[in-house]
Amino acid sequence: MSQVIWTHRALKDLEDIYDYISLDSEIAALNVVNEILDCEIHFSGETFLDGPKLGIENYHYFIKNNYRIVYRRDDFIILIITVFDTRRNPDKLFL
Predict the structure, then answer these.
(1) What is the C-alpha separation between 55 and 27, in angstroms, rounded?
(2) Element (H, E) at 68
(3) What would the pLDDT profile of 33-79 be if each residue is shown by its tens digit?
(4) Range of the domain at 16
């Protein structure tokens, strides 16, 4: 079973997502962030399969609703790099 580690950047992304959505609804913001955090189960499961590659060695992504969760997988560690809203300009995604 792999250990899932969220980078400071990924946690900041979640905070920004919450802050933005909470301008309309705190409940909706909490639901979205919790859904993203629940994706950790996908990464730590025994039947985990790598998602599509980003074109950078060992970098993959998983899409949950409108959010792309970018991660790097090593032997027993899944490192969540960033969480990116797919409705935004992908040129603004810096790794």
Answers:
(1) 36
(2) strand 67-73
(3) 999 998 877 766 654 556 655 656 778 888 888 898 888 887 778 89
(4) 3-85
